[in-house]
Structure formats: C-alpha cells, structure tokens
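Task card 7
Instruction: Convert sequence to structure tokens.
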Amino acid sequence: MTSVVLSLRFDDLTIGQRASLLRTVMAHDLTRFAEISGDGNPVHLSDHFAAKTRFGERIAHGMFTGSLISALIGTRLPGAGAIYLSQSFQFLAPVKIGDVVAASVEVAELIPERRRARLACECWVDATQVLAGDAWVSVPAERVEKSARRLAPAS
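Output:
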C-alpha cells in the first residue's frame, strides 16, 4: 500500500511546533531490531539473562527508542526530505516489553540562513522520561511530495 508523504518547508516551521507518536514495545520488535542492527545483547533478547541484571527483565535497545525520534523527523516534523544531521541522546530509564512510549520532537531553534532546525527530543513511558536529547536537521526550502510505501501500523 502506498500513501502520499508531505513535508514541511523551512518557512513552515515555528519555535514550539511539536509532533508526537505512541508506540507499544513488543518482544518481536526487539528481535527484529537486533536482527537489523546486529545488536544481539542478551539483555534485549534473553529472559533468563535479563532476569539476572539490575533491570530484572528484558529491556529495549536504547536506539530502538531513539529510532522513534527518527520516525518523527522523517515522517512528521519536518517530514520527507529532511536530512538528519546530528543527534544527542541521554537514556534516562529503561524501556520494557509492553511499555507504551510517547515520543515527541519540538522545534527549539531555527537558523534561516542555513535552513537548519534544532529539535528538542523526548520519550516518556507513563510519567517517566526515558530519553532526552537534541537533533539538528536540514529542512528543504520546498515541500517534498512523494509516493511512499506505507509501513505496517505500529502496535
């Protein structure tokens, strides 16, 4: 299935503009992420191993949680055509299987002469912040309209 992906132009952005998404972390997400990334750390994949850690159970890869920020940048704010330039993350608390992660980005700074935007990034599970950081993106001068393959909905 395909859909039309729209983006925002640099001139469409304003300080304080936000986008967010929710994602329930499932065991199969961690397996698939490990396969794609090559990060087979047993704290993510083995119940037996993870039970002996300070977390007491399997936790999501930090970059799995970080990838939700990438999804927001590439699909919502600014959207298609944005170029991810840099990212800083602090992982503040573990994300566990079954957690619902609320990820958001907010325009924090704009540099018009270079069409750059700094986005404040955060992820929460209930009332606990699990990720904080900043991303710099290059934003197109014109809207990008592109037919894209729609991914299966996040569970």
